[in-house]
Specification:
Layout (H helix, E strand, L loop, with lengths): L3 E5 L11 H13 L3 E6 L7 E3 L4 E3 L5 H8 L4 E3 L10 E4 L3 H5 L4 H4 L7 H12 L4 E4 L3 H7 L4 E2 L14 H8 L3 E2 L8 E3 L4 E4 L8 H18 L1
Parallel strand pairs: 1-2, 1-6, 2-5, 6-7, 7-11, 8-9
Antiparallel strand pairs: 3-4, 10-11
Length: about 220
């Protein structure tokens, strides 16, 4: 039987939704490994819409589910309908939508709240001992919900290659263990069944980001 994996999206676009290359890498690797992806997103308004040419917010209003459907080629479901019992694993690609639409990390950091629907889904997979794959900024969700967990967002020393490294310190302050890693590597927290990789937390060539995401997917399927 093919493994059934929920993929949780947060919109469409790295600055206000899901990072498209990360989401695509997840879907491609699931397909390559013979798994069945089931894509979900919350039916909520985006925090805001960013003009990706100018890098500036616009007055537009968009819906997270509707925008996520662009990545899923329309084959998507409302997160409210997700039934953890029929699924083997969960994967959450990164992108600022995780920090803006699935949580308030973008504005509140470690003091953030997580959307009730998103929190319920993550806790349900965790309670069922089903693996959760997280990349880029999405490991902050685990850091907030599962104190003592082990995750990686890459490195903890900020530099040109690692511009978001301060995230690691905020996660440590939440009580989790951050493990430094390279962009093409993953970290597996066997106790919590979490698989994390840094992806675009690193200024790296896109093929190395893809390699790390592919490893994350393979580890999730191995644990499922």
């Amino acid at each position: 039987m093919a493994k059934r994996v929920a993929v949780l999206l947060a919109g469409c676009g790295p600055f206000d939704g899901s990072e498209l290359h990360e989401a695509s890498a997840v879907l491609v690797q699931l397909s390559r490994d013979g798994a069945q992806a089931e894509v979900f997103a919350p039916n909520i308004p985006q925090m805001h819409v960013v003009d990706h040419v100018k890098g500036q917010p616009t007055p537009e209003q968009r819906n997270v589910l509707v925008e996520s459907a662009r990545i899923a080629r329309g084959n998507i479901k409302d997160l409210a309908t997700l039934d953890v019992q029929g699924l083997d694993a969960l994967i959450v690609p990164g992108g600022f939508g995780v920090a803006k639409n699935l949580s308030t990390w973008a504005t509140q950091g470690k003091e953030c709240s997580i959307s009730r629907e998103v929190e319920a889904v993550l806790r349900a997979f965790h309670a069922a001992h089903k693996p959760i794959g997280l990349c880029c900024i999405s490991p902050v969700l685990a850091a907030k919900l599962f104190p003592g967990c082990e995750v990686t967002v890459g490195h903890d020393t900020e530099c040109e290659q690692w511009p978001y490294a301060k995230t690691a310190e905020a996660m440590r302050e939440l009580g989790c263990r951050h493990v430094n890693s390279q962009v093409s590597e993953v970290h597996v927290d066997a106790r919590n069944r979490l698989v994390t990789t840094s992806a675009f937390m690193c200024n790296a060539p896109i093929h190395l980001v893809h390699d790390g995401v592919a490893k994350m997917v393979r580890e999730v399927l191995r644990l499922a």
